């Protein structure tokens, strides 16, 4: 244990870690310290945890100058290293962004705490009472890329739900993340929450990611936040359960019985409100009997969206390009849309079963039977009737904040917030029962 | 796809599969056929699924002579191969065991169906209604050892909850499992449930297990049912989520304020009712201020239990042997018990935090504060006040049947029955909402 303790001290000193520290030893030290602190956190009242988070938010505001200074160096290095303008924008902080980060921590502090909630309760013929009670998962690992606000967001969600967290941010934001982490845990400690519940990986050694993915028994769940290659690597290599979001190949089906004006509005919004979000529509399916297909594509073309259609779609408008087979499985995250004319609800269901990534699929129709079949038979995390797929978001779902959107099938699905950071235990209340 | 189709035909023909079929191709073929059939199953009413299971149970009863004949050959081979008497007993079927297997299928058919249940529902300020609805997980893989009744049990639980299942049983029960599978799916098909929802691996090639563990995207969850080495292998190698039960190092703490008679009864039952079950107590912790420690150990010694104690415990009775350090982390599954005298509730919590496997831990006390601290601070799947740990069982919890007991933290914890074989989807009901 000596080697472990040493690396923990290193980690907590805020200094640079010796690059020769074994990444597995480093992760074990951080995780063990976090787990011990989590047991203290779990005993605290929900009010104490909330107040400590408000103190953490206040500490972020006070530390704004320090965070901005650290961030300026990260931005300078990033520009020198040739980061794209979009990446530099994601990296850059300003006073408004720091205020937004602190406000988000305050908002998480104000959310209802799921810990201690009784899921169900029953009594047995022998008089025993059984109940399932929500408890924190334990230690959550977050592996994320350039946005520094994830440091504060993810930590706040974990602490609110009684969990410890091990944060591993991207190298381009290393100084910013360290400054944010340092301010936040200072505030938490003022509120009596041990600083060790929020652990921060103090090295950019990429082998640490591998060590986190292998840390079965030390980390209970890993949430990757970033691009597809990061998520795919985490899913492929993890020996720890992963809550992850992969593709959002989302369909909107305009049924023959759709209200044409409503369909136009929903289709335009689902594609063009923001093309880079995971809830953006990527394929439009139009019932061959829908009366006004041109009315659907015209506003998209006007808005500058490239349309790639099947043969029947191409006949609607000469500006529509022919789709390649790969288009039906493409997540463009851009102003590009594949469009197919399908033979009614049946045709839409067949297309979606084959091509949907199981994220968010929507139907527009005034026909209740068609809507109810669609909502029941489409097996995606989110199924929508008569609304834009861009609502696929924890905030829009009233969850207050989200740790991510899960496209897996177990534990939690769709937007995941505080409840998804908990599990349950069975409490059995007896009066001397023995089993015959 | 031709190779896949061929192996599916092989699999469904009931014949022996060419040993040169690629295990990954075989698993893909079986899983794809099962997934397609599952989509049909998911559209059926709960009544249809229940009636088909009753027909499956009837088919098992009718096929009893065929199953017994197949089983007799398995038993003969097993004895010739030198299987232990205990393993032969687990393998052997008789008319009563077949009736019990059929009755268990009937019982699962009669359970409440979780599919379609609304978990929660809310409405947003913009008028959208959101609800979470339970849906089947999809395709469940079961990897099990010698007991042939698992073939029927696991299949029934999966079909009741709308899932397809891929069964991979042990080689020693191959003929029995095949006969049970064949009868069961015949009955299901009579009830309109496609036989392909219950897939059976038609080869004993051990590489198939590896292929199942790697079948991410084809199999949604794997449940290993068997000894510790099987479970450990599955957990180490799976690229698919695993619902598994590992150790049950279960503690019972007798507090200073326990009722001595109740404590004696619970302790004796928790250890000696059946020593080989996962809910059996493996360590007894006695508060140093509990007035009658000898009254606790005497009935255990009388019942033939070997006791291994710490120094303070050894002074209670000369028949108690000194414990080695390894005893505090041992799952004996036998008439052996480690016993420690601890300094009150605090001492018990420290010991349990360090040594519990997180399965089932119990306190015996008349002190409500001590009980409530124990139930809240012990972080195990099942925590019990004033009852025997041997109640850790899905049937005893009123779940009707169980697919297993989970010692992991995500998705489901403790006894897992039909609800644990479901996930949920978000249904969003709009009236034309677009996101600003």
From TrEMBL, chains A, B:
It comes from the Bacteria. GO terms for cellular component: cytoplasm. It is found in: Cytoplasm. GO terms for biological process: L-proline biosynthetic process. It catalyses: L-glutamate 5-semialdehyde + phosphate + NADP(+) = L-glutamyl 5-phosphate + NADPH + H(+). It is an enzyme of class 1 (oxidoreductase). GO terms for molecular function: glutamate-5-semialdehyde dehydrogenase activity; NADP binding. Pathway: Amino-acid biosynthesis; L-proline biosynthesis; L-glutamate 5-semialdehyde from L-glutamate: step 2/2. Signal peptide: none annotated. Residues 29-287 form the Aldehyde dehydrogenase domain. Its EC number is 1.2.1.41. Keywords: Amino-acid biosynthesis, Cytoplasm, NADP, Oxidoreductase, Proline biosynthesis. It holds the Pfam family Aldedh. InterPro entries: Ald_DH/histidinol_DH, Ald_DH_C, Ald_DH_N, Aldehyde_DH_dom, G-glutamylP_reductase_CS, Glu-5-SA_DH, GPR_dom. Catalyzes the NADPH-dependent reduction of L-glutamate 5-phosphate into L-glutamate 5-semialdehyde and phosphate. The product spontaneously undergoes cyclization to form 1-pyrroline-5-carboxylate. Belongs to the gamma-glutamyl phosphate reductase family. HAMAP family: ProA. This is Gamma-glutamyl phosphate reductase. It comes from Novosphingobium fuchskuhlense. The gene is proA.
